[in-house]
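Quick note —
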Amino acid sequence: MIFSVDFILDDGIKSAIKKAQESVKQSTDKLRLDVMQHYDLHRDCIKGFKLSPDSVAQLGFQMAFYKLYAKFVATYESCSTSAFKHGRTETVRPLTMATKQCVEEFHKKSRPSNSDLKNLLKECTKVHNQLTKDAAMGQGFDRHLFALRYLAEEKGMKAPALYQDPVYAEANHFIISTSTLFGPAFSGGGFAPVVQDGLGIGYGFLDNFTGCLVSSYSPYRDGTAFVEALHSTYDDIYNVLSKS
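Predicted structure written out below.
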């Protein structure tokens, strides 16, 4: 049996719907999508150098951002915790002291030898792989801190001082937010930035290329400039690896 459901909308509801439509339109009008594909630094190539494809991809994001803005920012990567019953995700924070050092060495005017740079890339892979393993096994800290704050609010308790600290706020303002995509159609999937001045990066690897879809909100962040910097960064990493 099929019934017609008629919604009765008063002026208040109609006004709220209109405001929501306008808000969505403003956001989508500012949203920009850029696609990048790199045909040298692909999955098989990276594994051939005994490096982690995910580590190299994440390092590339840091290097490209540093190339444009000469600074490092909070970075998010989702990690599945499906090993646990009802497991969802934990946060991997790809910006580490290892990636920071590697990025800075790559950008020095008198930079180290290709062999030394390759060793830094290996160290980035080592650190990144451990972070990913820890997160997958429930050893991250982001979900833990979120749960504590949620429980405090649920019980009507004042949030601990940690959550009011400017450093904590900056650490959770994820300007670079990333997640892996599967399949060759990178232009068909992705997500918006999680903050107004951020970048949303959906990325993945195939046997013959690495690709990503980068979203940004104009004029707060230039996604086109970022993918150009990212492509040249992957060129640089590939040249270092192939000549070391």
